[in-house]
Amino acid sequence: MEEGTSKSPSNPGGTVAVADAPGVDGSGAPVADGSGAPVADGSDADCFDPFQWDTREDCEVRQILDRIADKWSLLVIALLDNRTLRFTELRREIDGISQRMLTVTLRQLERDGLVHRTVHPVVPPRVEYGLTSLGCTLHETIQSLVNWTEAHRAEIAAARAAYDARSVG
């Protein structure tokens, strides 16, 4: 039985087995629920149902979100905004990242079409990284998230303090 690893607030139990997912039978095939609601048929519209992210192989939303929401990927994308940087410059700018982790992150971002790698034919070879046009659109989205965080940080700090005060008692 294929299992996913969703741990969202709406799914506090964590792992969801395909057979237990809404709208599918024991084999993972869509079934009617008798309510007249649309059947999960593998269409792109199903990607908006968070329970489907882990149970369907053809919807890569979860994989993509895991990649771009990774702390190293976010930092790389932020640093490459409107400029190119060499590997050593990136490593110097990202506190705490290992050489191996930066290499893996850059390869994954390149594979996803978010970062381009340019090798200059000099000795020793000079390699630079920059955002693709797709990567630039993602940077805009990340910037929106940063702006939201800055606008609401006082509210978040107050909520944390209230929560911590309740937890102590």
C-alpha end-to-end distance: 43 Å
The fraction of residues in strands falls at 5-15%
> Percent helix among the residues?
40-55%
Structure classification = mainly alpha
User: What shape does the CA trace take?
Assistant: elongated
Number of separate strands: 3
**Order of strands across the widest beta sheet?**
1-3-2
Instruction: Give the SSE order as H and E letters.
Output: HHEHHEEH
Q: Report the uncertain regions.
A: 1-40
Total count of helical runs of at least 4 residues: 5
- Mean model confidence by pLDDT: 77
Radius of gyration: 21 Å
Summarize the main sheet.
3 strands, antiparallel
Topology:
Elements: H1 61-68, H2 71-79, E1 85-86, H3 87-93, H4 99-111, E2 115-120, E3 126-131, H5 133-168
Antiparallel strand pairs: 1-3, 2-3
Provide a concise account of the structure shown.
The chain is mainly alpha-helical. It has helices at residues 61-68, 71-79, 87-93, 99-111, 133-168, and strands at 85-86, 115-120, 126-131. The chain contains 5 helices and 3 strands, in the order ααβααββα.
Q: Overview of this structure, please?
A:
The chain has 169 residues and is mainly alpha-helical. It is built from 5 helices and 3 strands, in the order ααβααββα. Residues 1-40 have low confidence and may be disordered. The radius of gyration is 21 Å and the shape is elongated. It has helices at residues 61-68, 71-79, 87-93, 99-111, 133-168, and strands at 85-86, 115-120, 126-131. Helix content is 43%, strand content 8%. Strands 1-3-2 form a 3-stranded antiparallel sheet.
